[in-house]
Predict the structure.
Amino acid sequence: MWDYILHHYYEIAAIILFGIGFMNLLLQKNLIKKIVGLNIMDTAVYLFLAARGFIFGRVAPVPQDFSVAPTVDQFINPIPGGLVLTGIVVSVSVTAFSLALVMKLYKRYHTLNLDEVLVLAKEERKQQENGEGGND
Amino acid sequence: MSHVLPFVYNFPSFSILLTLMAGMVTPFIRNGRAAQKINFGVITVVGAMNAIVLGTLMGIGGNGEPTSYTYMMGHFPAPWGNELRAGPLEALMATLFCLVMALSILGGLKDIYRDISPKKQYLYFLMMNLLLSSLLALIYTNDLFTAYVFIEINTIAACAIVMIKASGETVVATIRYLIMSLIGSGILLLGVCMLYSITGQLLLSSIQEALIPIVENGEYTVPLAILVGLMVLGVSLKSAVYPFHSWLPGAHGSSTTSSSAILSGLVLKGYLILLIKMCYRLFTPQMLADMHITDVILIFGVAGMIIGSVKALKEKHIKRMIAYSSVAQIGYIFMGIGLGSDIGILAACYHILSHAFTKPMLFCAAGNLVNNSGHNYQIKALKGSARKSPLAGIAFTVGSLSMIGIPLFAGFVPKVFFSTAAIGSDWFRLAVVLIALAVSTVLNALYYLPACIHIWTPRKSEEAAHGDAHGHDSHGHGAEEAEDEDELVHDEHHEKPKMGISFIISMVLFIASNFALGICYQPIANVIEAGIRLLG
């Protein structure tokens, strides 16, 4: 058991981080903290991937010493690295989009608390309906 | 696969690239109308290309045998490169999605130009291009990680077309939608990564090859169950199956007409098609049945069918009511997938199409009716609105009848298929599915029919004169002949009924395709059946 944990501590840390990020994204009331949670969650997945792709004592498949023919067992699998890079790009754009949205929300309601925003929006909607739909 | 591909086989990748290119070009145009023309040109070309692909794959002009193929992106062979895969099912979905998207934009064109500030209109069409490209990529891709990337593009584009209306309500709805979507894609990504670390492959077919011996030897049982659960959960969050639907009514109910139509009709379906592809090409239906994942999907679906309808019944806001009805319809599709048999999937695919043609029509018609009754979304305020724009009224009625599942309308055919699929199953599933179908049909009728009757009921004359301005639910006694006059007076006070030529085209084509799907269902069912056979 301990042996197992020692061998896989990256993956275990990744899953714990994923849980932390997930719960933050789900339960935090503050929108900025939610987005921080999203980033923790995404980073955890990348850590997981990178850890799966890495083998101790090996390097990325870029031959440095051309005097000897490179063999497969010198190298790690480069694909997870590529996936992590793609994932980082995706997560950056999603984060930028969310932050822009939060800015818009803050300018309108002057609060970052999602619950307060929801209450304010509900009141706004009621007012609109009353304004447009008459008073019955 | 022969060495030289027929030229037609390039079309799926061309259509994805073309839509992406159009998305990249649009920001330099900065003009809503021009951007719209580009968007329509792209949709037409892409639709035509996919129709040709469909014809070729169904063997029209050839040997008459349906075929499918995988297409290398670049010159990297199977386990390393990125691949597309096209079969009759994919080509059919892609073609019809293009059609639905064009019709939805046409149906809400006036609203787009009214709801969105002129500076941002071109961005709307940019998002439409991106949305179409991501949907096409989700339909055609054979690579799990590509699917994830395009899911994120889809999320951003979908959120953007909700928030572009820029009212407080839409911004709040978008943030809820965005959070749920991000949770969904994060969970899906974790599932994908776990699957990659077990199999070492990213192409759907290679993963399947690697998985079959693993499952046969009984290895990795727990991780596999967890990751399948994670992936299904991720897709369910994004396609708003019942317990995860909380974001949907806000996002679909508050956005501009075309956005609601496209979100309900297409965006949700992209994920469902991905789920169907996962069932056949990533895992095998037998594998999922052994893990009892299909049972879970079935339960989600049945719960969604009933509870979505109950919530719609309580709703007084017309667009939110239609949005809740989407929750119920997604439940149907999940139920079909959950039955796990080929005919269940056939029913699910047919329902994807019938819903894709019905729900946008309902949203566009409702948008027009709302415009004709003083921009009030309450159902009671829509009284008599269909008399002012009969075409919208007819479209709304046709859509309602189709959603209820009256014969001759599109919604009837999948219900027959669902029942047939259930009869082929064991008695417990048979009972659950048939009861759920019956209850859900009655519930659908309970909220759609009153709305239909309401929009056709003439307003009493006093109401017609004052009704929209003050929203009185009063009890004037008007003579029928006074009504036309009153309407004229009313129209001068407010805007003229909005019935642009684009709206007429859109509604007529929607109604026609609804009947086509409901009456000439056999050819389409044959295509879907061939597609499913080739998927497995």
In short: Residues 79-109 of chain A form the longest helix (31 residues).
